[in-house]
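Dear H.,

Thanks for agreeing to be a second pair of eyes. The structure we're designing against is below in token form, covering all 230 positions.
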């Protein structure tokens, strides 16, 4: 039986005009990220938010979930992991878009840590380009340091990308942001990035503000900045 995903949701007041999918980190759950939807509601009033729980229980965090195992914490393991999790997430995205009557141009992926790895991997491999991908405190996973994103087909469907990282992250060092941006640039895929000074492995208010405004721009919206900063 194929794996299916589910998790907490936030619905707009009327019919959804955009869909934002929030992917949690290793050992966490959808409840850890769904609150971001509430914080972005003033910027994205027509968006539906969903934070699916990863398909596997996490052995290192009782009650937590994982998108894929992290035992060796090396590139080869991460590469195997994102490829295993990708089709499960892809099917979930198709179902959620159908639920709201939307297409990929109205879809944004937002991930934190392990969820950011999967968001970048999936966002760069959908059949049609997404509206945006945001990776918080994560990294771009590639096979054994190689870049498999340089084909014309890959670059033609690349969505706008924002990478956000804390300068004091001791779990995934901030250098991962610059390395990921460099790998994307080598493939001809531009991205924006923001370094949150003094922040560890977390999302701070400034990073959330950058993310919300980035999504609004990618969705073609003009947010009320006074409400956004309230």
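And this is the sequence the design step returned. I haven't edited it by hand at all.
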């Amino acid at each position: 039986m194929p794996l299916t995903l589910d998790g907490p949701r936030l619905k707009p007041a009327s019919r959804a005009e955009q869909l934002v999918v929030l992917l949690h980190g290793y050992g966490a759950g959808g409840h850890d990220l769904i609150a971001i939807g509430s914080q972005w509601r003033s910027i994205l009033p027509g968006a539906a938010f969903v934070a699916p729980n990863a398909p596997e229980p996490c052995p290192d965090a009782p009650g937590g979930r994982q998108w894929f195992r992290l035992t060796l914490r090396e590139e080869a393991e991460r590469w195997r992991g994102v490829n295993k999790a990708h089709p499960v997430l892809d099917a979930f995205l198709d179902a959620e878009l159908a639920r709201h009557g939307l297409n990929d141009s109205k879809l944004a992926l937002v991930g934190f840590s392990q969820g950011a790895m999967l968001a970048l991997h999936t966002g760069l491999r959908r059949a049609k380009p997404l509206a945006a991908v945001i990776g918080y405190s994560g990294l771009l996973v590639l096979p054994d340091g190689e870049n498999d994103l340089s084909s014309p087909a890959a670059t033609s469907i690349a969505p706008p990308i924002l990478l956000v990282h804390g300068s004091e992250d001791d779990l995934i060092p901030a250098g991962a942001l610059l390395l990921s941006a460099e790998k994307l640039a080598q493939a001809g895929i531009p991205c924006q990035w923001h370094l949150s000074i003094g922040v560890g492995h977390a999302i701070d208010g400034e990073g959330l503000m950058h993310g919300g405004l980035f999504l609004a721009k990618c969705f073609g919206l003009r947010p009320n900045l006074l409400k956004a900063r309230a």
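Two observations from my side: Residues 9-228 form a domain with the Rossmann fold fold (CATH 3.40.50.1820). The beta strands are 9-10, 18-23, 47-50, 56-57, 65-66, 107-112, 132-136, 161-166, 192-196.

Warmly,
E.
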